[in-house]
Amino acid sequence: MLMPRFVSLAFLLVLSLSLSVAAQTGTPPNYKVVKPGPVIRVAADNFHLTGSFSVSRGTEVQPIEEKSFGSGGACIYGDLAAVGAPELSCTTNTQCTQAWTEFHAGNLSNPNYDAAAFNGTSGQCIANRCWYRPGPLLCTRVVPPNSWSLGHHKFGPFSLGHVARLFGEDAQIDWQVVTCSNHAQAKGQDDTACAIGQGVYTPPAEASKLKATNWESVVRHPGGV
Question: For residue 123, which phi and psi values (nearest 5 degrees)?
Answer without folding.
Answer: -110, 155
